[in-house]
Amino acid sequence: MIKRYSLKEDRYRALSEHFTAGEFACRDGSDEILIDDALIDALEEIRAHFNMPVTITSGYRSPEYNASINGAKKSKHMLGQAADIRVQGVLPIKVAAYAQEIGMGGIGLYDYGGMSGFTHIDTRDGNWRGVQISSKGSSLSVSKYFPTVKKGSTGQCVVILQRAVGAEDDGIFGKKTLAAVKEYQKKKGLEPDGIVGKLTWRCIIDG
What pTM did the predictor assign? Predict the structure, then answer.
């Protein structure tokens, strides 16, 4: 259920054990805050899983503010159904993977390398998955996270793979990436076949 709150009156109102209404407030300082109860439940589940604090970098957005930052025209932030988050000490890729495990409708992996970036989650019906690999780029929809990739594959997920195995992150799975993947697989005790499937992705996610 989506509920309406006031920044002035509810800033410090506890919505759950670890989150207050003010943490979801629009960055333009407007008074109205919309928040989906299901989003709060998901955030508590993420916090409990990693046992680390969760920072909401963007919660509710007024339509005016969303337009001012060139947000998606149908952004779930405007409905109080979305939050951009960072989990203290946890890589965005790990947060996105867990969000997928608990069945979040929308997930955006904003992975800028290392600990930089954040994860978007929302409570939409249906599924949306997005990846952005640079703070100066834009989010691109992908059919799924952590697909099987091999020599000849291209795209955003290949960049994330390349960063994990220490290859040049040009988004093209060529000979150098193949060699780096095989070496990575050897170190992790996997069959060094150069094909990145569930087991290799799991090693990358777990770090």
Answer: 0.92
Residue 33: φ, ψ to 5°: -135, 125
Q: Please name the amino acid found at residue 96.
A: A
- Give which of 93, 90, 86 is closest to 201, Cα–Cα: 93
Query: Which residues touch 32 (CB under 8 Å, ≥6 apart)?
Result: 4, 5, 6, 7, 26, 60, 62
CB of 83 closer than 8 Å to CB of 46:
no
Query: Cα–Cα distance between 33 and 23 in angstroms, integer?
Result: 10
Q: Which residue in 5, 1, 11 sits closest to 41, CA to CA?
A: 1
Query: What are the tokens at 70?
Result: 């060139």
Cα dist from 46 to 27, 92, 172, whole Å = 23, 12, 32
Measured CA to CA, the distance from residue 128 to residue 92 in angstroms comes to 17
Distance, CA of 95 to chain centre: 6
Paired sense of beta strands 106-111 and 54-58, if any = unpaired
Short-list 60, 96, 93, 64, CA closest to 78: 60
pLDDT per residue over 141-169, tens digit each?
Answer: 888 889 999 999 999 999 999 999 999 99
192 three-state secondary structure = coil
